[in-house]
Give the backbone structure.
Amino acid sequence: MMRWARPLVGVAFVSGVLLGCASIQNAPVNLPGTPPNLANNLGPAFEENTSADETIIGLSFSGGGTRAAAYAFGVLSELERIPVRGAQQPMIDRVEFISGVSGGSVTAAYYGLKKRAGLADFREKFLLRNAEEGLQTSVSLATLSRAFAGGINDSTGFPRWLDANLFHGATFGEFRAIGKPRVWINASDIYNRTPFVFGAVTFNAICSDLSQYPLSNAVAASAAVPVVFAPVVIQSFPTKCDQPLPAWVARVQRDRNASPMLASFASALTKYHDGAVPFIKLLDGGLVDNFGLSGFTISRLSSDTPYGPLSPKQAVKLRRALFLVADASAPGPSPEWINTIEGPRGSDLVGAAVDTTLGSSVATSFTAFNSTMNDWQAALIRWRCGLSAADRARYGAGPNWSCRDIRFFVGRVGFNQLDPVRADRLSKVPTRFSLPQEQVDDVIEAGRDTLRGSPVFKAFAGSL
């Protein structure tokens, strides 16, 4: 959540009883689907768009406004500078997966759309721009009344700015047709208290045409801070078609030991599909996962194969994989009330509660992600070692191939990995969508430096 929003949340919380109860209407823009375009939601099999490299990289970009977007950009920029050992290509060409949330979703979506060419102009087109222009971000009686009507800003202004300045009408149809990296944009379904992943599985469950959905609206939903923004609304069309849910949904609902994240996501899909939730209300994805790990974690846990979301060919060729969280979050504030009996009060209290919730969720989500990756590596080894000679040849295993020669590296880079003075300075960069150039460039450089200095990244690069 953006820190500049917390005073608004706190003041709105204590002032609500004084205000009216009108609501803001935010019309959904997603369109109903038909069997043909729901089939197109799945697009070409992802395995057709993946490379069969021995090395792959998956990235997750946290929330945190422009600060998070700039930090993610710094990590990508450094990957472009570093060559793959023994190859001509830079590391960035091995990025197969990106999952983004809130501010991090802006960088994820733009890089997914423009690829390496997007690194040349993202700083000027977004990071140095005021993405808050046209938005209300100050506290007043007028904004408080809108806050309690559903949100100080409706769900049209920010996506309109994003579309005009970054995405230029791009939809998921265009986004998904241009190949790797596979990108997940994550928001929060506030009714079901679960991630809402903009992808084929979710949109098929609501019988909606993903290919027509604007990319800017998905990014805006991922960054919709409560109270500051009204929820983005997605409509379900359960009577429009008879598209069955994936088989894994029923399997997960029968499994009492299923991952809590996957179980809650499967439950939400069932409610969408059955018409129990005709209007899905989405807010900032950081509310349920501020590391942005949901998209990839769900994709892996829901796979019916030991190798998914990789293709069999890629799973056989794979030797080294890096999964890295670019974490631009900052430690919670240390206000004076920790040294006194009094306090916290008002907005400080609400802000502290939000920080506590987010801090707990990110620690839990990274631990779960690390466990998922370890389990996946073990499953891949078992599957590879069980292949017949014919299958090994069909999937491209060479004469010296070893079924056990596969290693995953899982890590996180963040401000706290820098020297304390610099880390403290960066943690004070506000989580707004408008920052001065010196702060933007400071955060970008931090992304580059923390990647270069990461022990996990060094071990990965050294193992190639």
Notes: The two ends are 37 Å apart (CA to CA). Residues 8-21, 44-49 have pLDDT under 50 and may be disordered. The CA atoms of residues 192 and 268 lie 6 Å apart.
